[in-house]
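Hi V.,

You were right to ask for the full record rather than a summary. Here it is.
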Amino acid sequence: MLLHIGDKHISSWSLRPWILLKMADIPFAEEVHAFLPDRTTQRRLWRAFSPTAQVPVLHDGELVIWDSLAICLYLGERYPQLWPDDRAARAWAYAASAEMHAGFTALRSQCGFTVRPAAPITAPDAALAADLDRLNTLWTEGLGRFGGDYLAGGRFTVPDAFYVPVVLRLHHYGLAGRLAPAVRDYLAHILALPALQAWCA
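Predicted structure:
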């Protein structure tokens, strides 16, 4: 398998399938593509490997799978351990991953993805505060309901991969203090993962 990704200090969507594969010890090759100032040239070059001229894109033999959620759904068919074993936890994991894929627009727009500390946000506006409240509720539910160190149980699965870029945003923009203690513990646990440290390095 070959995973096409963007610059690691910019591409939060690339991080999601990359860290999922790393945490599951699934062999794959990666090809990093630089974001170019000239987006017309970038789109022309990227269409050689991506139908949408965007990343991430997974090539598995003759199959080409684009979009981070589609990639994780495809990988989950090949490697069932990427989703929780428990049916209730798996259903929750589907919904939580889809919610991240489609939502949290204030957090993503106001807290640009970065692998380094940024200027802290000391007074979130109403939209960002609502996103933080929802994250706190969602993560508290997963951690408490499924009884493990990760969002949907005892091992790293797709929802964890989808929220890893959020962990970096919360940490680097100084927003972790607004979370519940159990959620802060989860955040610290994710930040300490060797795979994430390797990406940030």
